Write the structure tokens for this entry.
Amino acid sequence: MPEPLDPTVMTAEPRLIGSRCSQCATVTFPRQGSCPRCTSVDVSEWPLATRGTLWTWTIQCFEPKPPYVSDGAFEPYGVGYVELPGEVRVETRLTEADPARLRIGMPMELTVIPAGAKITYAFRPA
Amino acid sequence: MSAVAIIGAGIHPFGRHPGVTGLDMAAVAARAALADAGVGWEDIEVAVGGSDSAGNADTSVSALGLTGLPFINVKNGCATGGTALTTAHAMLASGAAEVALVVGFDKHPPGAFNPLPEEWGIGAWYGETGLMLTTQFFAMKIQRYMAEHGISTSTLAKVAEKAFANGARNPHAWRRTPLSEDEVLASKMVNHPLTQYMFCSPGEGAVALVLARGARVAAAGRTPVWLRSVAFRTRRFGSFEVFSPSIPIESAPSPTADAAAAAFEDAGVAPSDVDVAQVQDTESGAEVMHLAETGLCEHGEQESLIQSGATEIGGRLPVNTDGGCLANGEPIGASGLRQVHEVVLQLRGHAGDRQVPGSPRVGFTQVYGAPGVSACTVLSR
């Protein structure tokens, strides 16, 4: 089974690894050692929800320069923010790259896509 | 606080200049600003300047003259010029100096900016998986904004059409060929909903300004343009910013909204008093959103304002009269000062073919940059 590109960001299950502030309940992604809202350092690891709704999106139509890892001929890909209810909005690759099949508010769920020989997270229409 | 005026403004044309370094362009702009102010480099008591990727501003003293003056280098992304201005303004207002020069310049290779995640506090995975692009951010921000506030793609195209029409009337602009709304819409899709001609390109250029206070303003003999305020802010928790792997569900005003509110308050001027405005238009959507974030209009009002031509030269609220970033390109260190340079020309009535009619009295500028910084100024005759 391929490994996550960055195991500090996600597990192979997959689950995204965030953090939650014990003082004000703010959830962040990726995990960090302090709370950006209340400045507390009393934060702990928090596995994020795997389902949410599409908050905004675009299609990346040109191939990014390195450090983007190219895997052959470039195909446009979707990018968006998915709102995980009560937690946070996560920036993510989307499995869907057809603008006609993306709309703000649609249900989405966590999945994985290849990243070279490893995997990274993405969201797909649920 | 002692009033501060801009008594000289100089520019090196924007665009592509093979064989000319960013520092060369900075020296050209500085000499032009000094000549415009009628002062010599030896009269400058303090200088502040910067670029993002074209070298240290203070090394321009080897071209301008080794007078021993204090020269502060600043580097603050797209807010570099605004930060230079903030610093010089504070030094003059506090009485630390009477005449200052600010300079901003840059020289970038063609193609999208290519920032490294590690320099922005983000893991390498963010760049490797294709998320580290400013173009994506602006596309996703305007996509959401259009859905919430009823902005059409036609309006996005009209912003670009206006920019290139204004650029065609500006001898210092890079892109001087008018493009119709249809041509903008038909250009290659870059990041949905934004097409190629709705984006500015990284470029080259330099701008310098001479600032003065007290008796030195009258002595310069130029019609002074008063720098009524300059405000600079970073992002707050809850604002939607570039290079954010996540954003909170609770929302907060943008750094642009905060900086603009502070600039208007410090100046004692209302947004409705503004006769000419320059706002950051790294792409069409940015101009639309920044118009409302700065308080120059209500959210959603841009659709009727832009469709009716109100933001054109000759309209009720002329915006980006020199063609903005879209027609001038984006040399990061220079853009914020280009906006101020343009307002100075407009308030003096020296803007040539692109002069706003009716003798404008109050001008406003706003820049925005990664990772969520903004600088705004209010200027008046």
Observations:
- Chain A has a mean pLDDT of 95.
- Strands of chain A lie at 10-11, 15-21, 27-28, 43-47, 51-60, 77-84, 88-94, 107-115, 118-125.
- Chain A has no helices and nine strands.
